[in-house]
Design brief:
Elements lengths: L3 E4 L5 E3 L9 E6 L9 E3 L2 E5 L4 E6 L5 E6 L9 E3 L2 E5 L4 E6 L5 E6 L9 E3 L2 E5 L4 E5 L6 E6 L9 E3 L2 E5 L4 E6 L5 E6 L9 E3 L2 E5 L4 E6 L5 E6 L9 E3 L2 E6 L3 E6 L5 E6 L5 E5 L2 E6 L3 E6 L5 E4 L11 E3 L2 E5 L4 E6 L3
Antiparallel strand pairs: 1-7, 2-3, 3-34, 4-5, 5-6, 6-7, 8-9, 9-10, 10-11, 12-13, 13-14, 14-15, 16-17, 17-18, 18-19, 20-21, 21-22, 22-23, 24-25, 25-26, 26-27, 28-29, 29-30, 30-31, 32-33, 33-34
């Protein structure tokens, strides 16, 4: 496999670092392809993959490209950063480890199928799902497999950790809880259709959506259903939890805020499209391919501000240091002032 590194590539970027108004563009940087995955923002650097098959490392303050790492077959997950390396998966079945300072490859691990599950770092281990139906536990330093857990169908869902247990969904219609130390199954809960949504674990509950149009709330210890919400359309999005409430978007163009314990509706917001979102400090940052990016008050669903420019978002944004980082289908990486 031929890999190449380019340092300080002179790509076009626009800097407006002094724009202080909330919702205003600070900078945007052009890549060579559409951006379909969320960035990792760590220690003043933005790591983000593009459809040009490259991983970009940008300066978070100004958007300048520091290095790129070019793959042969592309990148099919969001990256994760840990202990001097950035990790990500590819559609041709490899897990990559790349040095965050130099942008050079440390190792690759061949996995049995394409990887669409974002790496989870836990207790000096990497957990990642694959299209070959397996959840892998990998040593991040050596790039060797420590254990695998076999589901009955491919795993697109991003694994989530709580209390030494890893939770994820599968295309076999099931939600799994696996002991992260041993790789042994703790429980499994079956829905009526496949699961691409990633779980949210909060307050002893597991929240996860299914293509069967339902958001499920399960007891994290036993896997028993506590309540469910019928949304009327397949649920691809992943829920988030804010102050005891859980929020989920459905493909019917509606965003729900529910009481995390009872499932009762707190508020709803009509988005008019599939949306991607993240939460921080009582706010929900929402975006989509049609209506751009905006910020909602997580308590009542009221819109606080909106980014005025065109920003075709097709992956969840990331909030860091009062800034919103995201990529668009137009190939740009955007940084927007989100306030403090």
């Amino acid at each position: 496999m031929r890999l190449s590194i380019s340092l300080l590539i002179p790509l076009f970027f626009i800097s407006n670092a002094h724009a202080a108004d909330i919702g205003k563009l600070i900078w945007k940087t052009k890549t060579g392809g559409a951006i379909r995955f969320s960035p990792a923002v760590v220690d003043g650097k933005v790591y983000i993959p593009s459809d040009d098959k490259a991983l970009y490392c940008l300066d978070a303050a100004a958007g300048k490209v520091l290095w790129t790492f070019q793959t042969e077959a592309g990148i099919s997950t969001s990256p994760a950063v840990y202990a001097g390396a950035v990790y990500f998966g590819s559609p041709h079945g490899y897990l990559y480890s790349v040095d965050i300072k130099t942008g050079t490859k440390i190792w690759t691990l061949k996995i049995g199928g394409s990887v669409h599950s974002t790496p989870l770092i836990w207790n000096n281990k990497i957990l990642i799902g694959s299209k070959d139906n397996n959840l892998y536990c990998v040593d991040p330093k050596a790039g060797t497999t420590l254990w695998t857990f076999a589901a009955s169908a491919m795993i697109y869902s991003n694994p989530v950790m709580a209390d030494n247990k890893v939770y994820f969904g599968s295309y076999d219609n099931s939600v799994y809880c696996v002991d992260a130390v041993t790789g042994k199954k703790v429980w499994v809960f079956e829905t009526m259709s496949f699961i691409a949504s990633s779980p949210c674990v909060s307050g002893g509950m597991v929240y996860i959506g299914s293509y069967d149009t339902v958001l499920y709330c399960l007891d994290a210890k036993s896997g028993k259903q506590q309540w469910m919400l019928e949304t009327g359309a397949p649920v691809y999005a992943s829920p988030v939890s804010v102050d005891g409430n859980v929020m989920i978007g459905s493909s019917a163009g509606k965003l729900y805020c529910l009481d995390g314990k009872t499932g009762k509706k707190v508020w709803t917001y009509q988005t008019g499209e599939d949306v991607f979102y993240c939460a921080a400090e009582g706010k929900l940052y929402v975006g989509g391919a049609l209506n751009g990016v905006y910020c909602l008050d997580a308590k009542n669903g009221k819109k606080l501000w909106a980014y005025k420019g065109k920003l075709p978002l097709v992956s969840p944004p990331v909030i860091a240091g009062g800034k919103l980082f995201m990529g668009g289908a137009d190939g740009y990486v955007y940084c927007v002032d989100a306030g403090k």
